[in-house]
Specification:
CATH superfamily of the domain at 859-1007: Histidine kinase-like ATPase, C-terminal domain
Distance between the termini: 160 Å
EC number: 2.7.13.3
Strand content: 35-45%
Oligomer: single chain
Helix content: 10-25%
Domain Histidine kinase: 795-1010
Keywords: Kinase, Membrane, Phosphoprotein, Transferase, Transmembrane, Transmembrane helix
Protein name: histidine kinase
Catalytic activity: ATP + protein L-histidine = ADP + protein N-phospho-L-histidine
CATH class of the domain at 859-1007: Alpha Beta
Number of helices: 10
CATH topology of the domain at 859-1007: Heat Shock Protein 90
CATH architecture of the domain at 859-1007: 2-Layer Sandwich
């Protein structure tokens, strides 16, 4: 008995699991079809695979195709005789995917690009064993169905060789050979597929699926779908996936916990055979890729949403207002009940308006028909109703004791326009109004703001009604805003939906506008449904959007915060992108957690916690088209300076709604560079870029929280030779050298001119300086002479007064007295004579001094012999000297020539020799000269009576301070005073010395200079 039960369970277990998984996993789907009209190079898709970078690859009979979810990149210009390719094999996880053309050439897919390689020993699609040819079998549609072909299959531990009636296993390590006699294995295509390194054989005769490991049969399974001759098996060893196509229904077969499990994926609503020959299932994105032999590629997207339409017997599935009816269903104003499986029954309401329905405090359903309020009674299971005439109710809410109703009233009978009335009732009925507030435009929405205020929306403005002051405040001000809905979120914030102007956050009686999405679809948003994770679901006229509430609140605080809206469109499983608004309730939340939204074509059911959102994981910036020539690069893009246009491509493997692919890029280093959106084609164009190093930065959104990943590409544009640094340095150096030479030449020219000018100026300056110097010297000398002359005149005046006075007094005495005797008379006359003679001699000396001075002013320097000058003076005084028996000896150097003023020096020497001759008797006067450079010492010695000490002291002191000393002319005469004065004029000096024995020595110290 136990054995029978075990067999029964084993026999029907697979059928049970098949039915179970069919119920659970059968989903709605959307289909995208691609062929030669929209991207494919050819309509026969031989094989499909996904590489380690996330790109989908297709083989066709006209090249290899890479698909990133948005665009196809075709490679068909290989250096081959044909561009026909078949199946993939290799290891995607190792970035080593191979495919082979019709003539044995191998293409390697590596690093996201294909290239031709030599056939490798371990990765060949053909081998020979025991003189028998075997072709690699990695997919059941490797070759066209033709008999007599042998195959081999590679596994980690060994290899299978497959003939029409023979299966041989060869172990790689032990070299053991296992031969299984399974007949027949195949006629045209082997009845074999592989999962998880295990081989499965379909035995149509026994209706079993046999599992084979290491060349030995391990187990068998009763799976009618696999053994049904109508089933078409699509399998790929490299993808490790097996699909079953049976009566337009597609299943996936997986090996789980030692069992083969078959799961129904979807049913194609078509009767014809699609000629599928390849398949790939992307579990992450819930997409099945089906390749046809003639029809191109179909991408079936399994949906997290369920679109429910009205039964075929009903009119169009255009839904507006709805109410939750049970834990998993909703009811419409027509009384129709729907759950995610479809139509579930009807209450057959009598055609009310589709734009309003609500529950009252007793659970009765309220609807509007024409201008009357219809209330369907819950106690009668909504079969009976009562009506309240002339109550065009637009919105409604209640509290523990009152009803609050928003009504429409026609403005007049000639126009379709309405006014609005907010009515507060005394109880929970529509019979006893307590307060009314009037609005001059059609009302749309009513909600309680707080205990004392109510928000009322109309087609023109948003108002706040104060229940305390009974006043109405216009929140929107002068700007007309058509209010569609007002939603209070769980945190107490109020969100205002509008028609055509987006939605707003109401904060402190101020509306804060929320940003639009990239397509501005959010401008016409209908309502907000909030899930438990804090996401807002916003239906619009063009898609359903999801956004985190915290991002919107952050944006309200800081407008620089970026809000990321995630868009769900028709590809997600809707029948249309247009959702409906305009009703008092535009969406419902069921007790089972599902959300329900009305659309232009169906009700959309979905569980917000089970809806997947997809963001890209990585992006690749490694190819560009430069002036129509494709180029590949790695982190650095080299451009020529004369390039016209460069299109840099951002490749992103992303297989969801491309509206959610947020890619932005910018070029740094340019003034005003900012983030720019990269289009859906992933292309960023640049032109007119100067030479140098530039940075191209790309960022991509990868999460709801606003997280981005970044890529930086360096763009290097080499300069022309005349723009290089070395050329600039060379040019600058050359310019500096030229400038230096020009400056040097100019300086030399100016120096020459300056030198010439300097010569002229120097000459003139010297002349002027000499003149000035002479004038200065003359001025000094004149000043000194004037001072000396003043002093001399003063002394002369003083000294001449006495003799003149004496003469005058004597003459008076002589005149007054007539009785002079002879002796007295002689005495008087003698006194007059001496005084007169003294005065005469004094006058003569003054005249001689004046003559010398006048001659000195105009005297020109001339060179003469000092010895000759002394000789002239010697001859002059020889007669007087001989009378006194005195000899004058001239020992001055006969070769000595001097520039000293001849007149002055002659007067000095004359006075000194004269003094010596006067006071020397019977003696010798000797004149000698001593020369030391420009200094000449002239020594005049006599052996006369000599000069007393008082005179020597007086003349020495006078010579040192001639300007201040008093002149004693009367006492010492004019001679030596004149000598001192003349010496001062020629810069000379005299030293008076008494000789040891007798006589006096005069030592003249003179300076012999031409320019003196």
């Amino acid at each position: 008995m136990a054995i029978l039960i075990h067999r029964f369970v084993q026999k029907y277990a697979s059928v049970f699991f098949l039915c179970l998984f069919s119920l659970i996993y059968s989903q709605q789907y959307s289909i995208q079809l691609f062929n030669t009209d929209n991207g494919l190079p050819q309509n026969s898709v031989k094989d499909i695979i996904k590489d380690k970078y996330g790109f989908i690859w297709l083989t066709t009979e006209n090249g290899i195709v890479r698909y990133d979810g948005t665009k196809f990149l075709v490679y068909k210009n290989f250096a081959l005789t044909t561009q026909r390719f078949t199946y993939f094999y290799g290891h995607p996880e190792k970035d080593s995917i191979y495919t082979t053309g019709d003539y044995g050439k191998t293409i390697l897919l590596h690093g996201k690009f294909p290239k031709i390689i030599r056939n490798l020993k371990n990765f060949t699609n053909f081998t020979v064993k025991d003189n028998i040819n075997y072709f690699l079998y990695s997919s059941n549609f490797n070759y066209s169905t033709s008999p007599g072909i042998n195959f081999y299959m590679n596994f980690k531990k060994g290899r299978y060789y497959i003939k029409e009636n023979d299966l041989t296993y060869f172990d790689n390590r032990s070299k053991v050979k296992e031969n299984l006699k399974i007949t027949p294995i195949y006629k045209n295509v082997p009845r074999i597929f592989a999962i998880n390194q295990m081989l499965f054989y379909i035995d149509f005769k026994s209706k079993k699926v046999v599992k084979i490991e290491a060349g030995k049969i391990k187990k068998s399974y009763n799976l009618p779908l696999l053994t049904d001759t109508r089933s078409k098996i699509l399998w790929s060893q490299i993808n490790n996936q097996v699909f079953i196509v049976n009566q337009n229904t597609i299943y996936i077969c997986e090996y789980v916990m030692d069992e083969l499990k078959i799961t129904r994926l979807f049913h194609l609503n078509k009767d014809k055979n699609e000629n599928f020959i390849s398949a790939y299932y992307d579990k992450y994105y819930k997409k099945i890729y089906l390749g046809s032999s003639i029809g191109g590629l179909q991408i079936i997207s399994l949906s997290d949403f369920t679109a429910v339409t009205r039964p075929p017997s009903k009119s169009e599935s255009n839904f507006y207002a709805l109410l939750p009816f049970s834990d998993s269903s909703v009811i419409t104003p027509f009384g129709e009940i729907y759950d995610r499986t479809g139509f579930a029954g009807s209450k057959n309401f009598n055609n009310p308006s589709p734009f309003f329905m609500d529950y009252d405090h007793q659970g009765n359903m309220m609807m509007v028909k024409d201008y009357d309020l219809m209330i369907y009674q819950k106690l009668t299971s909504y079969r009976k109703n009562i009506s309240i005439k002339d109550n065009f109710l637009r919105d409604f809410f209640f509290d523990k004791s009152k009803y609050y109703g928003l009504f429409c009233t026609p403005k007049n009978n000639s126009t379709p326009e309405f006014n609005g009335i907010l009515t507060l009732y005394k109880d929970q009925s529509f019979k006893f109004p307590e307060k009314k507030f009037f609005f001059d435009s059609e009302p749309t929405k009513l909600i309680r703001l707080d205990q004392n205020n109510i928000l009322v929306g109309t087609v023109k403005a948003l108002y706040k009604v104060s229940l305390q002051t009974n006043k109405i405040y216009n929140i929107t001000g002068k700007n007309e805003v058509s209010i569609r809905n007002i939603i209070k979120s769980k945190d107490g914030n109020f969100w205002v939906m509008t028609l055509g102007k987006g939605f707003y956050l109401l904060k402190n009686d101020h509306l804060i506008k929320m940003p639009y999405d990239i397509n501005n679809n959010i401008s016409s948003s209908h309502t907000i449904l909030e899930d438990v994770n804090g996401f807002f679901w916003i239906p619009t006229n063009n898609g359903l959007y999801r956004v985190p509430e915290n991002q919107l609140l952050q944006y309200a605080q800081n407008k620089k915060i970026k809000v990321n809206y995630y868009r769900f469109s028709k590809d997600s499983g809707f029948n249309t992108n247009e959702f409906n608004g305009g009703s008092n309730i535009c969406g419902g939340i069921l007790k089972n957690g599902e959300f329900v939204l009305p659309s232009l074509n169906g009700l959309i059911f979905f569980d917000p916690l089970k809806v997947n959102t997809y963001y890209p994981e990585n992006m690749y910036v490694e190819r560009a088209i430069i002036d129509n020539n494709e180029s590949r690069f790695n982190k650095v893009l080299h451009l020529k300076q004369d390039f016209g246009r460069a299109d840099i491509f951002v490749d992103v493997p992303y297989y969801s709604n491309s509206d959610n692919l947020v890619i932005e890029a910018k070029l740094t280093g340019n003034a005003g560079s900012k983030w720019e959106a990269v289009g859906k084609d992933g292309k960023f164009s640049i032109s007119n870029l100067g030479y140098g190093d530039h940075s191209f930065i790309v960022r991509m959104l990868i999460a709801d929280n606003g997280k981005y990943i970044y890529k930086r590409i360096n763009i290097v544009i080499p300069p022309y030779f005349y723009q290089t640094l070395w050329f600039k340095i060379f040019t600058l150096s050359l310019l500096i050298i030229l400038l230096y030479l020009v400056v040097r030449w100019r300086i030399h020219f100016l120096e020459k001119k300056n030198h010439e000018l300097e010569k002229i100026v120097s000459s003139r300056t010297k002349s002027l300086s000499d003149t000035v110097e002479k004038l200065e010297i003359t001025k000094i000398k004149l000043h000194k002479e004037i001072e000396q002359q003043k002093k001399l005149i003063g002394t002369i005046t003083h000294d001449i007064t006495t003799p003149v006075k004496f003469i005058a007094m004597t003459a008076k005495e002589l005149l007054n007295k007539n009785d002079f005797n002879e002796k007295q008379q002689e005495k008087i006359v003698n006194s007059i004579y001496k005084s007169s003679d003294q005065l005469y001699n004094f006058t003569i000396t003054l005249k001689e001094y004046a003559d010398i001075y006048s001659h000195y002013q105009s005297d020109k320097k001339e060179l003469y012999s000092l010895h000759s000058l002394i000789e002239e003076k010697k001859i002059l005084f020889n007669t007087i000297a001989e009378t006194n028996n005195t000899e004058i000896i001239n020992n001055v150097d006969p070769t000595l020539s001097v520039w000293i003023s001849k007149n002055i020096l002659s007067a000095i020497i004359h006075n000194l020799i004269d003094n010596s001759v006067k006071f020397t008797n019977n003696g010798i006067i000797t004149i000698e000269s001593i020369t030391e450079g420009e200094k000449i010492t002239l020594l005049i010695k006599d052996t006369g009576i000599g000069m007393d000490e008082n005179k020597i002291e007086y003349y020495t002191r006078l010579q040192d301070n001639i300007e201040n000393e008093k002149l004693l002319l009367q006492k010492y005469g004019m001679g030596l005073h004149l000598v001192l004065q003349l010496l001062q004029m020629i810069g000379g000096k005299i030293i008076f010395e008494k000789n040891t024995l007798q006589g006096t020595s005069f030592k003249l110290i003179l300076v012999n200079k031409k320019n003196d």
